[in-house]
């Protein structure tokens, strides 16, 4: 295990390669904060979840704004 992996585990509390919020398998899904479509995340997710389309568009905007 390299130093970066150890630091991430100590800071995040999760093993490296584990997503912070994994997509929901079933159950109520959170609404996208931009278009109100269902996301891949459970309704209990904290923060501002985005649907896959809005995530892609947000990534495009941030990539081009630099």
Strand order of the largest sheet: 1-2
Summarize the biggest pleated sheet: 2 strands, antiparallel
The ordered string of helix (H) and strand (E) elements is: HEEH
E-strand count? 2
Mean pLDDT, to the nearest integer, reads 76
Instruction: Give the low-confidence spans.
Output: none
- Large-scale geometry: flat
Rg (C-alpha, Å): 15 Å
Question: Helical element count?
Answer: 2
Q: Which class do the helix and strand fractions yield?
A: alpha+beta
Description:
- With 66 residues, the protein is an alpha+beta fold.
- The protein is built from 2 helices and 2 strands; from the N terminus they run αββα.
- It has a two-stranded antiparallel ribbon.
- The longest helix is centred in the last third of the chain and has 13 residues, at 52-64.
- The chain is flat.
- The N and C termini lie far apart (33 Å).
Secondary structure: elements and pairs:
Layout: H1 3-12, E1 29-31, E2 38-42, H2 52-64
Antiparallel strand pairs: 1-2
Write out key terms for the chains shown.
single chain, 66 residues, alpha+beta, two-stranded antiparallel sheet, 2 helices, 35% helix, 12% strand, flat
Put the structure in a nutshell.
The chain is α+β, with helices and mostly antiparallel strands and 66 residues long.
